[in-house]
Design brief:
By secondary structure, this protein is of the alpha/beta class. Helices cover 32% and strands 23% of the residues. It contains 8 helices and 9 strands. The chain is globular and about 50 Å long. The structure holds adenosine-5'-diphosphate and magnesium ion.
């Protein structure tokens, strides 16, 4: 579904952020991109979202290139900082922006917004000013805003950052649900503990290169420290496989 070949990216200041990424992601996969700070995770996500153009290489989703409107409509991105994404005064207004910009009919917009509010557990908060929301609620609002545009592929950049224990647990349940419903989901993180037992495949990024990839099996997880990523506790403790939700 997502095909990436020999992707390179230089920023204008000369930073060489991605150095030849090859990646294929199948429909319905929950795919984790992990790696230390500065490894290129956000850059890769922004390219997949169509927000920046790679300096070199090929990317295509369902056969469409980032130049096409269809490509951009297929992908929704949830940024690391929800405040960067929230533009409305109230919850309802914020979620409405996306579908309004798509030029949909009023009734369709209302239906989509109501559905997104219900699915992200924001009922009762519709008229609340966005700046009064908790960290977890803001994160869910950002997801609801994206969901209202009905993208097939969801990209999450460090979704667990700045959330407390209840916030992470709740978000994790929504992520698992979205995966079950058939969305293709890409998540970047430097901290794989929270999500590892739920992912189909994982790629380890370091210095702009994929150093290892595959299902989250023991050999791959054991190699993580050499790439600057902490392995999950069950590998460290050699114990049974547990979810962060257990
Ligand atoms: P990660 O998300 O893994 O922390 P990034 O993709 O944000 O990594 O960054 C990869 C590299 O690109 C880093 O060296 C970072 O400093 C650099 N970088 C990121 N954004 C920019 C930018 N807008 N201009 C110049 N360099 C950037
Ligand atoms: Mg990042």
């Amino acid at each position: 579904m997502i095909e990436i070949k020999n992707l390179h990216h230089h920023y204008p200041d000369g930073t060489y952020a991605l150095r030849g990424i090859d990646l294929t992601i199948s429909k319905g996969e929950l795919f984790l991109i992990c790696g230390p700070n500065g490894s290129g995770k956000t850059t890769l996500l922004r390219i997949i979202a169509g927000l920046i153009r790679p300096s070199k290489g090929y990317i295509n989703i369902n056969g469409f290139s980032p130049d096409s409107m269809i490509f951009r409509r297929m992908v929704g991105v949830i940024f690391q900082d929800p405040d960067a994404q929230i533009i409305g005064e109230t919850v309802r207004e914020d979620i409405s922006f996306g579908p309004e910009n798509m030029g949909l009919k009023k009734r369709e917009i209302e239906e989509r917004v109501d559905r997104a509010i219900a699915r992200m557990g924001l009922k009762g908060l519709e008229e609340k000013p966005c700046y009064l929301l908790s960290g977890g609620e803001k994160r869910r609002l950002a997801i609801a805003g994206v969901m209202a545009m009905n993208p097939e592929v969801l990209l999450f950049d460090e979704p667990f950052s700045h959330l407390d224990y209840p916030g992470i647990s709740e978000l994790l349940k929504y992520l698992i649900q979205l995966h079950k419903e058939g969305h293709t989901i890409l998540i970047t993180t430097h901290d794989i503990e929270k999500i590892i037992t739920h992912v189909d495949r994982i790629a380890v990024l370091k210095d702009g290169e994929i150093k290892a990839s595959g299902p989250p099996e023991e050999d791959l997880l054991k190699a993580l420290p050499s790439f600057g990523v902490r392995p999950p506790c069950y590998i460290i403790l050699k114990g049974r496989k547990i979810s962060w939700l257990d």
